[in-house]
Amino acid sequence: MKDKCGIVGISSNLGKNVSSFVYYGLYALQHRGQESAGIATFDGSKMHSHIEMGLLTDAFKDFDFNFLPGNKAIGHVRYSTTGDSKLENSQPFLTTLNGENIAIAHNGDIINSSSLRDELITEGYKFASDTDSEVLFYLIKREHKKTNDFILTIERVVEKIVGSYSIVILIYDKLYAVRDPAGMKPLAIAKINQDHIIASETVAFDVLGADHIRDVEPGEIVYFKGNEIKSHKVKIADSIKNAHCAFEYVYFARPDSIMDGQDVYKTRLNIGEHLYEEYKIDADIVVPVPDSSIPVAIGYSRASKIPYAEGLIKNRYVGRTFIMPTQEERSIYVKLKLNPVKSEIKGKKIILIDDSIVRGTTSQSLVKILKEFGAKEIHMLIGCPPIISPCYYGISMASKKELIAANNTISQIKEKLGVETLGYLSIESLVDSIGISFDELCLGCINEDYPTDIKK
Ligand code: SF4
Questions:
Q1: 6-240 CATH pick, 3.30.460.10, 3.30.750.200, 3.60.20.10, 3.40.50.920
Q2: CA atoms 198, 203, 204, 205: torsion sign
Q3: CATH of segment(s) 268-435
Q4: What is the pLDDT of residues 405-418, one digit of tens each?
């Protein structure tokens, strides 16, 4: 599973260059997108930008941040779900609006973007990319012509788009941020001295030594005037409820982030404790599939008193997945990425904890490898309920026919994986672990109850 993008925005009153601070903030969000990275700044008279393909460190290799002057800046790391992975689709997007410079960076998926795109093309707008972010861009342009007011413009755009999004926009010398009316994608605000920072996750604030003030609320437009945070709430239809993505807590977010008031690490410990309440298994060790399952395994180990063991070591230098047509190649790839520690595994009854199962191919290879290394029994516990349906909101998962739990019973999956036990966390326990009420979470890929109308 891959998330789509991380964003950072900084508004400073101190007249200093902030581009390198945006860079460090993005560095903390690299897990949200590894395909391209970019920063745009405004220096008081014009916009500057640097956008390249690759990891942040590649995109900004030997880069001199003096070439990105300005005390207002936004940045983006990208993983593509709408639009190909190419430079033209990378962000921030830049253009001019009535002579004023504008840059926009976006996390999420606008699910009605193709009809809006057709509408805009009919009206004469010419697209340079195939992303939904450019659709946003031209909507802003169109609505601004009618309103001549940026807050009203953003409000009108929010009324027209459907989907998940968190956006930072730099218009001339002002930084704006907006979060979708259901709050599906995270977005938070922090302060350091006279400067305000906006970011997808609070880890970006920790790196910069900034104090997390609060989250941007669902449907809220935030901007900064001097030392003050200004807020404008978009009118939200009664039918739209909060729907924070449950998978941010299970898998995507860094465990050291706080999201919508919830500590992600604590959530994962809770998941481990709940797994123990639901599955009491006689075993020798609890082993996580690193990294996101580590706190889950610690939670299970603490609750069960079964020792925690690092039975799998992750190679942190294995990058993007490549096409592996044969099972043998898939096994090599899994071993490259996760290698068992023979002395911990051999002859042991293992509780293997993973955060989720999507297609099942990685789990299948992993179980095979652990058995080859001498594991006596493998009891696999999953820190979320079965994923039975795709995500339409910017999480690249798989199609319904590829999802193992959409097409097999749990006992069939257990058979395919070759494990002694297979246990998924219940929805009730997941919701309880996160600490946000059932009605305020998106669980669409688990229960097919999506927060917006979708065309399947
Ligand atoms: S469908 Fe699943 S992955 Fe997508 S936003 Fe909802 S909970 Fe998150």
A1: 3.60.20.10
A2: positive
A3: 3.40.50.2020
A4: 999 999 999 999 99
